[in-house]
Amino acid sequence: MMMYIQINPELEMPIYEQLTMQIMIGIIRKELQDGDMLPSVRSLAADLGVNMHTVNKSYHQLEKKGLIQIIPKSGAVIRTISRRVTAEEQNRVSDSLKPAIVEAIVLGMKEEEITRLMKSIIQKMKEE
Asked: What tens digit of pLDDT does each residue of 74-85 get?
């Protein structure tokens, strides 16, 4: 795996979600590509200094999202071959975005500002 993962225990976001997010960002940046093997749960947990169950939970979350395939006794493989986003996946993403968008509107942000902010976040994820 050719990417750097950094966990911040001070964040409100649980560690397994931080790990999931960083692996997905690695896919966005093409640091991780289809067919790449992820480290074993035990190995990654040791490298990051976290519990094996934390890494396992992250891997299962990624598998549920269809981004990796867990192969028993072999490990986890990135599976991001171009495919169509299902209606269920689109609904899940929409449901995740709604609370942040509602908060932004309540705080007084205009639609154009929210759109600009989202584009900025996407761009930063691709570059960093």
From this structure: 889 999 877 788
